[in-house]
Amino acid sequence: MIGILTGRVIEKSPPYLILDVSGVGFIIQSPLNIFNRIALNCEITIYTKCLIKEEEILIFGFLQKPELETFNQLISVPGLGPKSALTLLSNFSPEEIARAIEEENPELLSSVPRIGTKLASKIILEMKGKLNFVKEAGPFNQALNALCSLGLTRAEAIERLKKLSGNLPAEELIKQALKGK
């Protein structure tokens, strides 16, 4: 199997990118948030998961190892395929997904297309306690909990926070979420 690929990005067409590795172009499916972090013709290393289907070989790629680990855990859940796992990782960081699982927050997971409440509950049931790389709540979850304690429903808080940049500290996320009605 293919575990890591290092090469030059020669094409970006989300959710696919083509990575030239010593003259061989690998078509790799990646979460959408990866495309903002890479440029054409830059050299990158991608952690990969290779899946062999009946008529094709699929390669899924991630810039960070926790993304790959989360992807592997997600696709082990019955009823959750690689495309749904990629959609989750396109919308949330591995830490945010793990925190939602540990806090048993199906609303956050089901706010993503292709993930219904039933599947979100199944993900929590199957994965709780398995993602050990998260120790502290990230800014997104801190802001989510604060907004809920201020009277917003979880769904409202999630919707407002999803519209904001994930790189902000919790305090700024809370301020901007309260301003944007």
Write up what this structure looks like.
By secondary structure, the protein is α+β, with helices and mostly antiparallel strands. The chain has three domains: about 5-60, Nucleic acid-binding proteins (OB fold (Dihydrolipoamide Acetyltransferase, E2P)), CATH 2.40.50; about 65-125, 5' to 3' exonuclease, C-terminal subdomain (DNA polymerase, domain 1); about 140-180. The protein is built from eight helices and five strands; from the N terminus they run E-E-E-E-E-H-H-H-H-H-H-H-H. The chain has helices at about 65-75, 80-90, 95-100, 105-110, 115-125, 140-150, 155-160, 170-180, and strands at about 5-15, 15-20, 25-30, 45-50, 55-60. A five-stranded antiparallel β-sheet has the order 3-2-1-4-5, covered by helices on one side. Helix 6 crosses helix 7 (about 155-160).
Top keywords for this entry?
single chain, 181 residues, alpha+beta, OB fold (Dihydrolipoamide Acetyltransferase, E2P), DNA polymerase, domain 1, 5-stranded antiparallel beta sheet, 8 helices, 5 strands, 42% helix, globular
